[in-house]
Write a structure and sequence with these properties.
Strand order of the largest sheet: 1-2-3-4-6-8-9-10
Order of helices and strands: EHEHEHEEHEEHEHHEHEHHHH
CATH superfamily of the largest domain: Divalent-metal-dependent TIM barrel enzymes
Radius of gyration: 20 Å
Number of strands: 10
CATH class of the largest domain: Alpha Beta
Strand content: 5-15%
Distance between the termini: 9 Å
Largest sheet: 8 strands, parallel, barrel
Shape: globular
Number of domains: 2
CATH architecture of the largest domain: Alpha-Beta Barrel
Helix content: 40-55%
CATH topology of the largest domain: TIM Barrel
Oligomer: single chain
């Protein structure tokens, strides 16, 4: 069986590392705590939150001092109550312009730090009621905004992280199909998608299928690993609920030669877990599941079973790789 691909960079939700610290932790404290986890070698920064007290150059130095790379910057609009009715879809043109201006500053900060990936999560862009929104205008404004931001610095990648809802009851870009449709209208080479495993589950999607669609119709720019029960954004530890679907996604990522970072968008703060122990568990589980996925990429029996859509045969192969179960002749898994 082929060996696992080169180990990816691992990043985690920086704010999770505030758990257990007194007062309001500084960004420097969060970075230091994340860097203390063996194998955690990258970070995403939120804009403008993490830049409130630090210039981009200072943040770049903080990361470098702790042996961490910048994976990217994620825009956060929810901290400004002015964006409650939307950022790119706000009915007020001045507010929409403010959202664009804020995002441009975020892109400039990203470029100053030597990063490349900007992630847009548009949770505030949507509706809560029937007859609340002008769907045509909201769509046109969003497509125009993404295109304008992509043109601001074509050397930077702009990724859309979709989610069915929260905080709005219905998001404008809730699933993979709608997001790809929007990017098809944007028509910019430096745009793509960030997939979040828990978001996919409660969008009622199969993660590997969504990854395949993105690879076919756009660019897969980011992967957020976590888990959940498919009813909300649980942010549970990797593989804790859906290990088989996680392995299937990892197999698809290898098939499409995804070489970006793996970002753990998990919520140890919800259950009062030690964030460092939680992050270490995520890394260990992902490494284990990546080893399993490497056994399955190009596996002839699995390929044959999938070709004839024989779920019993394919699951037997996966079980042997995942649980090291013996085959039908009693032979142990490799």
């Amino acid at each position: 069986m082929p060996a696992a691909a080169a180990r990816p960079r691992y990043a985690a939700r920086l704010n999770a590392f505030a758990v257990g610290l007194h007062g309001r932790p500084t960004v420097a404290e969060l970075i230091a705590r994340a860097a203390s986890v063996a194998g955690m070698d990258a970070a995403d920064l939120n804009y403008p939150d993490h830049f409130a007290s630090h210039r981009p150059a200072a943040l770049a130095a903080l990361l470098a001092d702790h042996g961490m790379a910048l994976n990217g910057v994620a825009m956060r609009y929810y901290t400004d109550p002015g964006f409650r009715l939307g950022a790119f879809t706000n009915p007020d043109r001045a507010v929409r312009q403010a959202a664009l201006d804020l995002t441009r500053r975020g892109l400039d900060a990203l470029a100053e730090m030597g990063g490349r990936l900007m992630t847009l999560w548009l949770g505030q862009d949507g509706v809560d009621y029937a007859f609340q929104g002008d769907y045509r205008r909201m769509w046109e404004d969003t497509v125009a905004a993404i295109a304008e931001l992509a043109d601001h610095n074509p050397a930077l990648d702009v990724a859309i992280e979709y989610k069915p809802n929260e905080p709005r009851a219905y998001a404008l870009l809730p699933d993979v199909g709608t997001t790809l449709l929007a990017l098809g209208e944007v028509r910019r080479a430096n745009t793509g998608v960030t997939l979040d495993f828990a978001h996919l589950l409660y969008a009622d999607e199969i993660p590997a299928r969504s990854a395949a669609l993105v690879a076919r119709h756009a660019r897969l720019l980011g992967v957020h690993l976590n888990d959940g029960y498919g009813k909300r954004d649980d942010g549970l530890m990797v593989g804790s609920v859906h290990p088989v679907q996680t392995v299937e996604l990892l197999v698809e990522l290898e098939r499409t030669r995804y070489r970006g970072a793996i970002y753990f968008d998990t919520f140890p703060d919800h259950g009062g877990l030690d964030p460092c122990a939680e992050a270490a568990t995520n890394i260990a589980m992902t490494e284990r599941l990546r080893t399993v996925a490497a056994r399955l990429v190009g596996h002839p029996d699995l390929a044959a079973a999938i070709a004839r859509q024989d779920a019993t045969a394919s699951l037997a192969v996966v079980a042997r790789a995942l649980y090291r179960a013996p085959d039908e002749r009693g032979r142990p898994a490799p």
